[in-house]
Structure formats: C-alpha cells, structure tokens
Description:
Blueprint: E1 2-14, E2 17-31, E3 37-50, E4 53-56, E5 59-68, E6 76-87, E7 91-96, H1 100-103, E8 109-114, E9 117-120, E10 123-124, E11 130-134, H2 140-153, H3 155-163, E12 185-186, H4 195-204, E13 207-210, E14 215-218, E15 225-229, E16 234-238, E17 243-246, E18 257-262, E19 269-275, E20 279-281, E21 298-304, E22 307-313, E23 316-328, E24 335-341, E25 344-355, E26 357-363, E27 366-370, E28 376-379, E29 383-388, E30 391-394, E31 401-403, E32 410-415, E33 418-420, E34 424-429, E35 432-437, E36 440-442, E37 450-455, E38 461-467, E39 470-472, E40 476-481, E41 483-488, E42 491-493, E43 500-504, E44 509-511, E45 514-516, E46 523-525, E47 528-529, E48 532-534, E49 537-539, E50 551-553, E51 557-558, E52 560-563, E53 566-568, E54 575-577, E55 583-586, E56 594-601, E57 607-611, E58 618-627, E59 637-640, E60 646-651, E61 660-668
Parallel strand pairs: 1-11, 12-13, 13-16, 14-17, 15-18, 16-19, 17-20, 18-21, 19-22, 20-23, 21-23, 22-24, 23-25, 24-26, 25-27, 25-28, 26-29, 27-30, 29-32, 30-33, 31-34, 32-35, 33-36, 34-37, 35-38, 36-39, 37-40, 38-41, 39-42, 40-43, 41-44, 42-45, 43-46, 44-48, 45-49, 46-50, 47-51, 48-52, 49-53, 50-54, ...
Antiparallel strand pairs: 1-2, 2-3, 3-4, 3-7, 5-6, 5-8, 8-9, 8-10, 9-11, 56-61, 57-60, 58-61, 59-60
Helix pairs in contact: 2-3
Amino acid sequence: MQKAQVAIARPLRVALLAVLLTAVSTWTVATASSATPERLTVQGFLSEAVQLQPMPVNGVVSMTFEVYDAWRGGSLLATHGPVPVLVTDGSYEVELPLGVDQFGGTIAWVQLTVDGELLAPRISLTNAPFTHVAESLAGADEGALAAQLAAAEGEFVAQVVASVGLHAAAQDPHPAYADEMELPTRVDCDGVDDTVRLQQAIAGANEVILPAGATCTVLRTTAEYALQIVKDDFRLRIEAGAVLRLADGQASGEETLRIVQIGSAAAAIHGVTIEGPGTIDGNRANNPLGKDVVMQRRAGVAILGIAEDIEVRGVRFVEASGDAIMIQGNSLENARHIRVRDNRFRNVEEGIIFFMADHVSITGNHIHDVLEQDGIEPHEFSEFWIIADNIISQVAAESGSGINPFAGASDGVIVGNTIVGHVDGIDLQNTDRILVSDNLIRKPGGTNGIGIRVRDVPGVDQRCNIVGNRIEGYHYGLLIESDDVHVSRNYVVGAESHGVYWNLGDRGTITDNFVIDPGGRGIHVADGDGISISGNTIVDSRAVPVMTDGAYFKSTVTGATFVDNEIVGQTFLAVRDDTGGAVLVRENVGFATETRGVASVPSSASIVSVLHGLDSAPGAPHVSVTPAGNLGQATKYWVAAVTDTSFEIHLDADPGAGGVDFSWSAVRD
Length: 669
C-alpha cells in the first residue's frame, strides 16, 4: 500500500468575496505488485476560509484526475473526470477506476482540477506530503478597495493600487521548480545554537519549516546577520508556537544585525516568502540598546538589494531592538513588489521601514507598543506604495509618528489605519502626491503632538490630499506647511490648541471639515497666498466655551477666501482678520457679513446713526441706502462715519414733517 498526502489551496469566489478552499487528501493505492497501481482511493477534508476563519465544506464539488509520466510536461497516461464528489462536513472519499494497463509500470504523477481550477504542481503517488496551489489567487477584497479608492480620488491613486498588485492575480507560487520535486525540510532545533543547521537547511531546500512548538536560537555570524536567504523561490514557514529567537548578548551596541536577511547587495533575488503564524523574537531584554540607536542597522527581517516579489505574512515579531522589518534597495535599483501583510508586532523599536523600494503593500498589520520611533516609515525615493488597514500604537508618546513618509517618498496611499498614542499621528515630510484618507488618529489626553502634519522644504509642492480622517486630541489637529495641500471632510475634535493650523503654503483648500471643541482657534491661517476655506463647521459645544476665534487670518496672508462656513460658540470673534482686507469673507453662518434694515431721519434732524450688526466694518462703497419716498425739504443724502459697529446717513437739510425713511444694506469687505 502506497500513500501520499496532498494539501490543496484554491480560490472560490462567492458573493464577490475571495474564499480559499483547502483540502488535505490521502491517496490510497492498492497494488497487484509493489509498483503498479490497480485503483486509487482519494480521502480528504475540504474547508473554506471565510475572512480567515476555516469552515467545513458541504455539498458537491467537481474533480478531474489526470495521470502523467513526468512531474512537468510529459505524456498523459490516464484521465478520469470531471466527476462530482460529495463533501459532508468537510470530509470526502472517491475511488478512481484507473487500472494497471493505464500506468504501464511507470512512475505516476497526478494532476488535479477542482471546480475548473487547475492545481499545481503535480504530485507523485509515491511521494510524501506536498502543497497544491491554484494558478491564480486573486484577492477580491483588495481589488474592491483599489477600485473604490480609484473612483473616489483620481488617477494617481489608481496607479498606486495597481502598482502594488491589488488588481492582479498572484503568479505561479513555484515558477522556477526544477524537474525533480523537492519536499519541505523540517528542522529540529536544540534551542541552544541552531544557526548552522538552519542555514544548511535554507541552502538545501526550497521550503524550510520550523515545526510547531520548536524554539530555534540563532547567533550572529561573522557577517551582519544570523541567517541569510540568497535563493529564488524560497519559503520559510514558522508554524504555530514555533519561535526563531536571537540568542542572548548578540546586540550590545549600534552595529548592524539582522536575524534573517533576504538578499544582498551583490545579486538580485526573487520570490521569497516568510510566513507565520510563529514568532521572530529579537530578545530585546538581553540585547539592550539606548534611545540613540541608528534604527535601520537592526532588523528582525531585512529585505535588501535588488529584491523582487518578496512577502512577509502572518508572523509575530516581538522584542525587536531596531526595525522589525526593513526593506532597502540599493543605488543600482530599488527593491520592488514587496508585500508585508497580517503580521503582529509588539515591543519593537520601530515596526516597518522601507527606502529605495517601489510597489510596496503594507496591509492588515497590528503594530502594538512601539517603543521609541515610527510604526511604519516609507522614505528615500520610494514610490507607488499603499499602507492600509493597519493598527499602530505606542506605549508612551515620547517620540516618533504612527506613519512617517519622508525624504522623497511619493505616489503613496495611506488609508483606513488606526493610530493611537504617537506624538504625531501621520507626518508627511518632503513627500509628493500622497493621499491620506479615512484614518482614525487618536491621542489620549490631547496634549502635545500633531494629528496629521504636512511639511516640505520651501518652494517644493507636496500635492497631498488629506481626506475623511478622524483626529482626536493632539495639540494641533492638522498642521500644514507646504504648497498645494487639500484638506477636506475631516473630523477634528478636542485639539488642545488649533483644529486646523495653516502655518505656511500657497494654493491650498480647507473644505467641508468639522472642527469641534478646539482649545484655541478652529482654523488658524498664519501665512500663504490663495487659500480657499469653505463649507466648514467650527463649533465649541462646551457649556462654557473655550474656543477663542472661529477663524483667524494673520497679517501675512494674501488672496484668501472664507465663504459659506458655520461658526458657533467662540469666546471672542467668529472671524479675526488682521490682513487689512486681503481675505474675502462672504455668506458665513454665525458671522455677519451681509446685513440690511430700515432707518429714519426724523423731523428737525439731518442725520441718523445706524447699527449695522456686522462683525467688522464694511467699506463705505459696500453700504447702500435708498429713500423710501421723497426727501422733503432736503435735496441730497450720503453715508459717512463707517465703523466696526455703525454708519451714519446724512441729509443736506431738515426733511421737515414726517422725516425720511431709508432702506439700507451693508456688506463686509
């Protein structure tokens, strides 16, 4: 009796969701001799992973079985199917009528098709367990996210999400297998020093498994790493409960040290995967470092050089002195097509950093208890990247940002992340064409720091959109210090000072935002030309208002407009304008910019003072008066003495009996 086990993975699309169907099957071969099968009986288990939760399959699936004389290519010896296979609570069994003459005494390789999905690679009837994967594993949820963002925010977002692979199906997971099948190598660790045996396993196999419950301890080598992967199409799997741990005393200063290094500066590398759900432990407690450590010198996993199509998924990273994951291209070519998804990080100096890396996707990671620096940091000329649906928190808000793109990072999307406790939530420095959308950014206590900051070198355009974020706490909700920044549909609550602080920058917009209960001003514009502010709601809802001014324009502001906003609950002025008329203020609720009424010059008088009710003085050309009838004994009238509170209507003579009534209107400059 010959047996082989096979694990099958393929996508199943149901209601536009990507559903992963897996099967673990046992081939039972009854033989007339030890080499020639008489029949095949397939037994196995099928489950659907819906939102990462396995569910047993119930129902009928279609299976086709083809027998070849080679692992790849070769001649078709026999075929059976498609046949319906009944699956009950995940279990199934089917007997195939494949006889001796159909095999002819050759080694048999079986290829499966499940519900029309071709699985690869083929499996030998005499081989040990192997993994079958469908030719395409498209992610419908990610594609839906990409389409939604592209429709909402424009062409460059579509380029970004397409470039990081959200629309495309994954490639054949084993594109470069040799003609001989290679089976996974499981490494038994002694927990004392497993460096050599692990490195030998990596060099000798295409897939290495650290088995469940194992503790594998590694020491730094004479190079800058403990382990190195320099072969294409390689997979390192750390099973549940397994730990890859840096030994005690290996990191005592600021020297370079990587637990696992993928690639090198010397050669390109493609198609490497590190996957969990096991743990990579940097052993921080026994490898102490000061706060002045140069962060990118250390990493749990480092992806270096001309690396392409690399993925780190489902791994737990703990106690890292330095970066948990670092991605770094080189001066010849950027690293590209890197995916970091669904990992867990705790007690790390910094979560994920990448520079000189393009087409990077960082999604679904939980980065808890960042100790000193940034949760996620793209920089140095990285472009076409997406950071989505991550959760990032800091133990004590001493330094760093939740997400900190800078130094030339461009064409990026930051969407749907939750950031709690960092000094700054999202800090864009010297970047270009970035969309920051639908993030929750929260600072418990609301002291110091900035929710979202956009800053740049003078004269360099950011061209960033800050859209639909919720920002709670912080000293400033949003701080803008760059040109061409557009701030819209954000909800900023409880800022210690200003809700939106436009410190400098030209050609920007602040539209349709809600600024609630700021400690200082709702919107503060200190410098800039051509800033348009419209449709915002600025409210102090506290029983005793604290907000000083709804909006403030410093004397250095030029060419600004403040139109169709609502201001409620300020302590002093709704709009404070120190520009001397450089701001156009119109049609705002809670700030009187246009008023009208009726005034009378009585008999025996030639002047009347009118309270116009505006929040500041209208210019004399913007006060209009019209007599309701004739002027009586007078022949002329005019407006004079326009102040912040009133103006006067003058006649050249006493109108006589009954006086003269005037209709008037006033408009603020």
